[in-house]
Amino acid sequence: SALIHVESAFTHGQPLNLPFPYPPYAAFGLGILARLPAHPAFAVWTALNLGAFAVASFLSIRRLASRWRLLGALGLMGCAPIIIATAQGENSGLVVLGFVLALMSLENVWLMAPGIMLLAFKPQFLIVPLALIAVRRRPREIMSAGLGITSLLVLGLLAGGIGGYVSFVGLLLKGIRWTTQYNWGPVHAYTLQAQVQSIFGHTGVSTILWIAGSIALLVWFVRWYVKDGRTGDVAQGEIWLVAACVAVAASTHVMFHDVAILYPAAAVAIGTRLRWAAIACLVAPWLDPSLYATTHVHVLVIACVITIGVAAAMALGRRNQPRTMEGETSAQRLAKVW
Asked: Does the pLDDT of residue 5 top 60, yes or no?
């Protein structure tokens, strides 16, 4: 009854009465919690998610130089989405840890398997790690990802059989209409799609714009990573932050609690050239709900897009720098002279 009351507040008195809104493989683990009484189950679930977020935060902070760790820790402690996720009983902590492990597979390929398994709670966030796997084409990383995906499929079959996957596909098709049916897109979502629809409404023009924009962001990210990320021209923290911004902006379903995946990436990026963009991504979630009510602008989405734009401008600047006879850029030569 409590869930129905909350749903009614967000759907104008029309409760959704969701059956099970996660993929079938999630039912395998959550089914264990379902055997417990409600309050102990919620306590265990909360501890799992807060513990996962704490681990993700630790793994992120230890990547920073000592002089940036305090600022990074303060940014993570001010994660408003994880506060909301805890109050609502969401799985954001596990998803954040999955995203961090997937990004850490840049150094340890075997972390991709547990990363994908946790991140698959929200399949829309898998597109960035899978794009990186496709670009890098490292056999061990592909094996690791395959192991994670196979494990998920098997767990889903054990939990609900083929019928579980059929029901989930039906739920996804039904959920497509919720954006317009309950006006969730522009108001309660934090994506490029939501921002475009808040300006142009649910029209054919807005559909074309957000689909084209999302595809453009993903294509640019892949090209940027190939030309700059793999060559060492950008820091790992910059890759983390840009990947998180693309994952949020180009997704089709990101609620406020899902924005938590930005925080570890932004904390790591504090020690890079994208420092101010990272700080903007840490602060924007606190400002967005109140500012959207008066401006109909999601400053969080704007912060993500600006971060991507700054990264693109920096990459373009590096490529356009003239080189001296010895192969150094003019900036490098001046730095040595100084």
From this structure: no
Question: What is the SS3 assignment for 176?
Answer: coil
Assign residue 136 a region (left: φ > 0; alpha: ψ between -120 and 50; beta: otherwise): alpha
Are 61 and 72 contacting, i.e. CB atoms less than 8 angstroms apart?
yes
Q: With b meaning 16 or more CB within 10 Å and e meaning fewer, what string describes 124-142?
A: bbbbbbebbbeebeeeebe
Give pLDDT, residue 335.
Answer: 44
Residue with tokens 């998803």: 95
Helix (H, G, I), strand (E, B) or coil at 32: helix
| Residue in the structure block whose two tokens are 């180009």 | 250
Q: Distance between CA 40 and CA 222 in Å, rounded? A: 44
Residue 296 β-bridge partners: none
Asked whether 235 and 257 are in contact (CB, 8 A), the reply is: no
For the chain, what is the mean pLDDT?
84
Residue 334 predicted with pLDDT over 50 = no
Query: Mind giving me the DSSP string for 109-161?
Result: GGGHHHHHHHHTTSGGGGHHHHHHHHHH--HHHHHHHHHHHHHHHHHHHHHHH
Can you state the angle between helices 92-104 and 38-61, rounded to 10 degrees? 30
**d(C-alpha 28, C-alpha 48), whole Å:** 16
For residue 329, list its beta bridge partners.
Answer: 323
Partners of 323 in the β-ladder? 329
End-to-end CA distance of the chain: 70
- Pick the closest to residue 192 from 240, 247, 131 (CA basis): 247
User: How far is it, in rounded angstroms, from Cα 25 to Cα 2?
Assistant: 26
pLDDT at 183: 55
